[in-house]
Amino acid sequence: MHELEVKNLKMKFGGVTAIAGLDMAVEENEIRGLIGPNGAGKTTLFNACSGRYPITSGDILYRGRKISGLKPHEIAAEGLVRTFQHVTLFKNFSVLNNVIAGGYLHAQHSYIGSLLASRRTREAEAGSRRRALEILDFVGLGRIANQEASTLPHGHQKMLGIAIALAAEPRMLMLDEPCAGMNSDESREMISLVRRIRDTGVTIMLIEHDMKVVMGLCDSITVLNFGNKIAEGTPEEVRANPEVREAYLGSQAHVA
Amino acid sequence: MTEIDLPHRIAWGALLLVALLAPIIVGFDPYLTHVGIIIAFNVALATTLWMIWSLGVISFAHAGFMGVGAYASALVLHKLGLSMWFGLWIGAMVCGALALFISLPLMRTRAVYFFMASWAVGEVIKRNFAYFKDFFGGWDGIFDIKPPVLDLMFVQIDFANRTAYYYLALLFVSLTVWVVYRINSSRTGMIYWAIHENELLAAHTGINVFRHKVICFTIACTLVGITGALYAHYQTYISPKSFDIWKSEFALVHLIVGGLTTVGGPVAGAISLTIVDEVLRASGYFRTIFFGVVLIASVLLLPGGLETIPRRIRAIFQRDSHK
User: Fold this and answer.
1) Is A193's pLDDT higher than 90?
2) Which of A199, A239, B121, B129 is most buried, most CB within 10 Å of its CB?
3) Is the whole-model pTM more than 0.90?
4) CATH: 3.90.470.20, 1.20.1300.10, 3.40.50.300, 3.30.1020.10. Which one for A1-79+172-256?
């Protein structure tokens, strides 16, 4: 059984075909890179897998269970969680509360419990808080837990976005350009974080434009162009593929 | 999900104490007691409106739902002959059921579309009261809505007595504020504020946004329905005009002047502006204009509203201590 399986997926927006019959599969506990020029359909694939946009046709299976047609919150509950390309946070929350809010799925929330502040509820809330602090320590934001999210520098905001996703305790994480807009130090930190997340048993699929990041980090890479898969394989295989050079980098360019 | 700290406890306790002693302080003056009762209604209206605001939207149907509770309770008295002790709960249930039903389409709209749709809901509720003359009494409204009598075997409390009604209103407004406060300071409140901050992200963390929006709206409208029933049996007369868009808009002004981020905001705003409103009553038509001036002045001079005053005072002291 594949961790994530996409079968003949088509995504159309009006007359525009964003994904034209894509077949691919992601295996358990790998780091899969998704690359391709702008408009290749990478983020659209994420939006399809996370339930943000309805799919036009085809099937998406997560651990053998059909998830296409489910709502974003249902897919998150299945264990498939994503982050966003642009910084997406609860901006006026503290860093800690961002992660606590992200832990909704494991918070045993109930209305009656909230109203009566029963012991079970208070224990669950304390548990959420403890868990959020652990996650913040894990991603390296533990020291700034009480700062307001909107005041953080860009790199930390991207990290926090991942911390929120981790709070949902995903089995598979989809990261949309985790290193976008980062300097090289922040990038290195992010790469090490992604590796550490994988080492906890999480499967990762990520979109990234920085070739050094992709080639150094990913176990395997899928290349999209104009909504089609044009290559798939290890970083070495993809790097050597003439079609990838042609389509992705222009015929004269050399992949780093 | 923040722990309630000591200054907050003291502030709420002091407010409740003043509210409890208020009739004695004013020497059971009937007019001032009346103002106290109106304050209680306005606090409940503003606080429950604020609960919907924690989702990030303002409902202009809020006074309309207060009207649903009021009419339901009045009709229970007149058509079924049951006192407010029944009408209150039946009104709340009718209001909750209607809110649940209406929020199913309403909560699929966002931002400015929600404002427009909720405005229409409020207007339609009001017009229904006016249109179905035989049932709701048309524009003339319903008269002679008797306040209840509480028969405790050895003692009878007649709530036609203003002081008695004040304490009844105080009891229910306290319960309303308590419910809203509790919900807001728990995980539920965090869910609402997460939706408020970023609906997309909230959905992707596993929150069923639509479900929580519907539940929040239903709870808030149920609470304001109870307030409506209390209002009806206090005024003894209601008409569609009692629950028009103006009432929702005044409640919105209470929120803005009081502050939008804590439950203390609507409470402070409703108390202070009801008093301002009563002081300005003599000016008749110009009341609304004064109200507008107060709104603009508070936005300009006190951005964030009354709830920011303690923080501002603390900031002044901290600045001094650094010198």
Assistant:
1) yes
2) B129
3) yes
4) 3.40.50.300
